[in-house]
Specification:
With 114 residues, the chain is of the alpha+beta class. It has one domain. Helix content is 40%, strand content 34%. It contains one helix and four strands, in the order αββββ. Strands 1-2-3-4 form a four-stranded antiparallel beta sheet, covered by helices on one side. It starts with a helix and ends with a strand.
Length: 114
C-alpha cells in the first residue's frame, strides 16, 4: 500500500513536469519562428534600395510560420523604415513580430540601420 502511494506521487510529479516542459517547448518554438520571420522581412527590406521605393511602414497580418498569409495565422509582422538626417544619410529599419500565447501578448523585434 505504501509502495503504491509513493508510485502515485512520483507519477503525478512526472506528469506535472511533462506539462511544464511541453508548454516551454511550444513557447520556444514560437519565439524561434518569430525571430526567423523578423529576420526574413528585414533581409527583404534591406535588399530594396533606395528605401523610398517601398512603403515606409506596413503590416502582414495572420502570417504562418513560413511567412505566408493564411486565415488564422498565428503571427502579425509589422515593419517601419525611418529616414534620418536631412537629406537622409541613413535609414532605421524595425521589424516586430507579435503573437498571443496562453492569453499573453508576445513579440520579437529586430532593428537595423542602412
Amino acid at each position: 500500500m505504501v509502495a503504491l502511494l509513493i508510485t502515485v506521487i512520483a507519477v503525478i510529479g512526472i506528469l506535472a513536469l511533462y506539462m511544464v516542459e511541453t508548454r516551454a517547448s511550444g513557447y520556444s518554438r514560437h519565439e524561434t519562428e518569430a525571430a526567423v520571420l523578423a529576420e526574413d522581412k528585414m533581409e527583404l527590406l534591406r535588399t530594396i534600395t533606395p528605401p523610398a521605393l517601398v512603403p515606409l511602414a506596413g503590416t502582414d497580418p495572420n502570417v504562418n510560420e513560413f511567412g505566408t498569409p493564411v486565415a488564422g495565422g498565428l503571427y502579425t509582422r509589422v515593419w517601419s523604415i525611418t529616414p534620418n538626417g536631412s537629406p537622409a544619410t541613413y535609414w532605421d529599419y524595425v521589424v516586430t513580430v507579435n503573437w498571443t500565447e496562453d492569453n499573453v501578448g508576445r513579440s520579437v523585434t529586430e532593428r537595423s540601420r542602412l
